[in-house]
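User: quick one
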Amino acid sequence: MTEVRIIGEQLLHMPWQEKPAGTAGPVWRHSDNPVIQRNPAKGIARIFNSAVVPFEGRFVGVFRAETINGRPHLHLGWSDDALSWTIEEERIAFVDEAGKPFQPNYAYDPRLVKVEGTYYIIWCTDFYGAAIGIAKTDDFKTFVRLENPFLPFNRNGVLFPRKINGNFVMLSRPSDSGHTPFGDVFLSESPDLVYWGKHRHVMTKGGQGWWQSVKIGGGPAPIETTEGWLMFYHGVTGTCNGLVYSMGAVILDRDEPSRVKYRSANYVLTPEEWYEERGFVGNVVFPCATLHDAGTGRIAIYYGAADTYVGVAYTTVQEIVDYVKATSEEVADDAEIGIM
Ligand code: BMA
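Assistant: Done. Structure below.
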């Protein structure tokens, strides 16, 4: 067993619980899930598929809030322990680069990533159809939208937490609009977050794992480890009763992240608890963020449950990387650079 470490910062005050005896897989749930319940603030019916980061000794999150008219918008939330959250009633007020108000028609499935001291929010926005929106903030007071990086239709934009070979790198899942019946994960590079290119295929749906046979999409920002970029993602299967969303784990090459090094054939979390099976859309676990500590290797995964709640699950970098390596399968040409 090779020792695996997280490359990054320490985060001693992140949430943590030890693995309960008898846990079947490499990931275990927080004992007091869901950490965000229904109707968490005035005018908000449900919060799920949301992202959190440490900020100035506390935690801040960008939350997908389904408002009581059924539309999704992004709201900030604050917490001292990253488990008990106070959600702001007003949605995030975005401005354009000239400082004028510039609100998205809808916004969902945010990711929140710090790169070189600036925090970026990446979400699914309305750009003549579902596409990727991006905004930046330094202080969680002013939120400046940048140009939409990609053409529609595209979702699940995930920025890497540092530049690679001098460029920003973003994963995305190009597809159609609506509830996409297909999709693979791709990657694009940019020197300035304005012009994007060097598009590469990263990973395909399918393989032995039928739990990811319909489509897949990036999850939390990848975690840099001594074995490569560890990424949790969602994989979707079709049943006679609708789609089921599970969570998988993959390790991408550190210098050429369009190459898959290891990819578990098994899901690492699938809907089993009442709050994952039952809700607005049952049978969904949808990871969007992690908190992790480079000192201990602890990882807390934040995931949406049943399009209704936020759940937290735990693992360690050693446990998950060992599991992914031990259960890895090579799917199609995922190990290639991804250009044709
Ligand atoms: C996808 C997205 C997610 C959602 C999932 C399950 O298409 O809309 O936000 O969690 O469907 O409904």
